């Protein structure tokens, strides 16, 4: 089964969110199960710098307003990769989607149309004599890949489109359609048009043979007006083609038994090292040691999605119980400032670091007793899974992948609340404090959380089954001896 995996970021070279972690974890897991998965990514400077074993550039000529497009075959991690060399579009520092001032690059429609158009160029088998059975695109950046494939007509690879976060859609003015090189009739409700503009997410949802998203609960939620971000109608119409497959996590990167960032290793069977990690975290965060209450960690983008404004308003009882809060995050300026103000108001008990720091993130999961993810919506969420494997009990809202990974109740692994409202979060936090007061109960929950199997193998099996459903002839059954 040959699969072209089309996306934009990849841990550790380039990461703005969980998508980078997924892109680093899923392709190797698929390859381990026998699929010939190869990556197609824009040659952003950070990815180009990380490329191993580069080979000779393949010229594609001018495409979508970019004068000289080429492909750089290489390896990233252990996965064969093509980087799209289009300096005019991709050779820009920093965030792949935003300029230095935090605004979208004005030519984003063309920049990411090019990603989809190059993916479709693989359909004729002219690139490295490698013709994919399936083109698998991720999030709006790759949303036009299924459209360009559909525009080819005739025999073509199957297309799969995965929604990692429906709230980022790639919506552009109608005029941008003229530059995309798609058939004129694609600018229609049954096509890439959405409320008078061009919408890359809509294109992926409409044209892909199958749509997946990153948890079963999110797959159901996005068919409703509350979570559909305006796409609920399309998604409802395509419900038969939509499937939720829960993300895994990369247990090579997230393993407290051999994590070089930690003060001491620990495991479920030998959890003692976690105590040293807790002390090290409190010291690193500049907080008073010997906390009798739980240390609550947060590692997150600071956007309205994540519900951390609710958490800010709810922490007083935790601090009254001699607990601590350690937050690492960045995002909305107002939310950053509000958390910094909270830390100033509670010196010694609330520590806030604004920024992005991979090593500190590992130390928070290892040192915290609990980790809060009170999201208003959460397609899958990875941090609650990292927390569980590191023995930190998750405090989460029952939505998306949080609902699918954390269980509450007598045999639970965490604390789950329903309404995205302060009283519901406060009640869950009160239950957390009650459980903390019963060490045997807390430790039993911790052991269950650390025992969860979140590896990528299970998800990879589901994706492979989906590819086989679409292209059953790709992997002929072995001929009998
Ligand atoms: P999202 O993709 O919505 O941001 P996820 O939970 O799926 O949320 O993935 C977030 C990823 O980014 C996790 O790997 C998390 O550890 C990491 N992360 C988020 N904020 C930071 C930060 N400030 N510093 C380091 N890592 C972060």
Sheet bearing the most strands, described? 9 strands, mixed
Q: What compounds are bound to the protein?
A: adenosine-5'-diphosphate
Secondary-structure-derived class: alpha/beta
The CATH topology of the largest domain comes to: Rossmann fold
Annotation field: number of helices: 18
Q: For the record, give the distance between the C-alpha atoms at the N and C termini, rounded to a whole number.
A: 22 Å
Q: Structurally, how many domains make up the residues?
A: 2
Estimated radius of gyration = 23 Å
Give the overall average pLDDT.
96
* Proportion of helical residues: 25-40%
> Ranges with pLDDT <50 over ≥5 residues?
none
Record field, number of beta strands = 18
The CATH class of the largest domain: Alpha Beta
CATH structural architecture of the largest domain: 3-Layer(aba) Sandwich
Q: CATH homologous superfamily of the largest domain - what is it?
A: Glycogen Phosphorylase B
Largest sheet, spatial ordering of strands: 3-4-5-2-1-6-7-11-12
Q: What general form does the structure show?
A: globular
Strand content: 15-25%
């Amino acid at each position: 089964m040959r699969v072209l995996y089309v996306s934009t970021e990849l841990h550790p070279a380039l990461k703005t969110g969980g998508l980078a972690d997924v892109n680093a974890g899923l392709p190797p897991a698929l390859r381990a199960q026998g699929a010939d998965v190869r990556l197609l990514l824009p040659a952003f400077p950070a990815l180009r710098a990380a490329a191993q074993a580069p080979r000779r550039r393949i010229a594609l000529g001018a495409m979508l307003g970019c004068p000289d497009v080429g492909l750089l075959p290489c390896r990233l991690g252990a996965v064969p990769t093509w980087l799209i060399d289009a300096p005019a579009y991709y050779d820009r520092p920093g965030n792949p989607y935003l300029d230095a001032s935090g605004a979208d690059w004005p030519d984003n429609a063309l920049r990411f149309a090019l990603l989809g158009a190059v993916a479709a160029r693989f359909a004729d088998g002219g690139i490295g004599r490698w013709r994919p059975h399936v083109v698998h695109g991720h999030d709006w950046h790759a949303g036009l890949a299924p459209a360009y494939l559909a525009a080819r007509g005739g025999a073509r690879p199957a297309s799969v489109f995965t929604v990692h976060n429906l709230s980022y859609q790639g919506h552009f003015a109608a005029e941008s359609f003229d530059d995309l090189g798609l058939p004129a009739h694609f600018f229609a409700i049954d096509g890439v048009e959405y409320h008078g503009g061009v919408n890359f997410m809509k294109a992926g949802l409409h044209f892909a043979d199958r749509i997946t998203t990153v948890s079963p609960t999110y797959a159901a939620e996005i068919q409703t007006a509350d979570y559909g971000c305006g796409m609920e109608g399309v998604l409802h119409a395509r419900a038969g083609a939509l499937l939720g497959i829960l993300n895994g996590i990369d247990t090579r990167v997230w393993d407290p038994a051999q994590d070089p960032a930690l003060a001491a290793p620990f495991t479920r069977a030998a959890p003692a090292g976690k105590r040293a990690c807790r002390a090290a975290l409190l010291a690193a965060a500049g907080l008073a040691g010997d906390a009798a209450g739980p240390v609550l960690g947060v590692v997150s983008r600071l956007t309205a999605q994540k519900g951390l404004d609710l958490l800010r308003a709810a922490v007083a009882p935790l601090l009254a119980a001699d607990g601590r809060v350690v937050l690492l995050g960045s995002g909305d300026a107002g939310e950053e400032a509000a958390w910094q103000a909270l830390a100033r108001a509670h010196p010694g008990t609330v520590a806030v670091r604004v920024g992005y720091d991979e090593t500190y993130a590992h130390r928070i999961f290892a040192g915290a007793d609990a980790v809060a993810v009170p999201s208003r919506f959460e397609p899958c969420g990875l941090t609650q899974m990292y927390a569980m494997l590191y023995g930190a009990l998750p405090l989460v809202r029952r939505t998306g992948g949080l609902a699918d990974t954390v269980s509450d109740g007598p045999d639970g692994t965490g604390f789950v609340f329903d309404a995205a409202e302060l009283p519901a979060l406060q009640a869950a936090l009160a239950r957390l404090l009650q459980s903390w007061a019963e060490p045997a109960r807390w430790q039993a929950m911790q052991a269950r959380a650390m025992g969860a199997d979140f590896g990528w193998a299970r998800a990879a099996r589901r994706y492979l089954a989906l590819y086989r459903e679409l292209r059953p002839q790709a992997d002929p059954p072995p001929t009998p001896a």
